[in-house]
Amino acid sequence: MLRFLQSIFGGVEQGRYPESLVKAAIERAVDGTDPWLRALSGYKKKLRPAVVRAIDHVVALVDKLPPPLTVDLENYGTDPRLKAFFMSTAEMRQILCGDRSLADFLKEPSSAASQVIALLMLEKQEKVGFGVALSGDVVVHDVPQVTVSFVGHRLIDPSDNEEKTRRQLMRRAYDHLLSIALGRIATVKGEREDLERRRTLLNAKLDLLQRVGWGFDETGPAGVPPSAALEVQLAQIEAKLEEVGGEDRVLDVCLGIVSDVLGRPEEYLWSGQEKLIVDRLGIKRSEPADDAPELTLGVLYNSAGQNRVLTLVALSGEELRGALG
Known about the structure:
The chain is α+β, with helices and mostly antiparallel strands.
């Protein structure tokens, strides 16, 4: 799957890719969205700038990830991020050892590796409630508090070395952009198909009304003959279909969608950082303290409004094999 991206993402400088690999990336964009785009003349030339920009973007996106965080299944130690992500060492061990992607990877020949690198992704949830707090020496009850928890832990693209995992993540980011383009294409085609069905039904109904003479004396509630009302609806549908265009025009629209998404990838998939201060109980604090350090979390966002906390992790292959039996 996307083997050409493994070569593109192998330490090549941004914007400098072999032409053969750019062409392969273009074909992947077409295969991943609508293969009928090949019917359009010049589709490769039209997509090339957008594809190169998308590759540049996913390379930069993954390059921003800090080095892997070492994870000890027996003791998550003093690292405040792991203490925030997992309630206990036991929970961390249970979640990581129960991850399906990791289990599948460990079944492969490369599972003999001494180290496993993967991307840990989590969903941060905040819940408003009430608790107790100290005001000097006085215990105050019913104090509004925000409790932060992390759920949906997943290990993405585990491999036996960091470079390979990063390449796989770049590939995954590229595919994510294609999935966004595909969704928009499906919407456009769905709207056209719906309009076509409605036009067929209205035409059939109008033909029936005209054949039986309905509309000569009968009128609708607004004094408009039913056949005339149907003709108005047909005209509106025809106008919308004209706006969407014929099949050839639809392909142009779809090509434009792919070019738009890949040409403006930073608007559809981007990363950032979030500062978070929580104590050991997961209660959000406004100021850092000994029991509530300030954390810097990497966050991935997309245009659908989704976001996930993410960090590269390094796990001991020996520990994993021992834990999984």
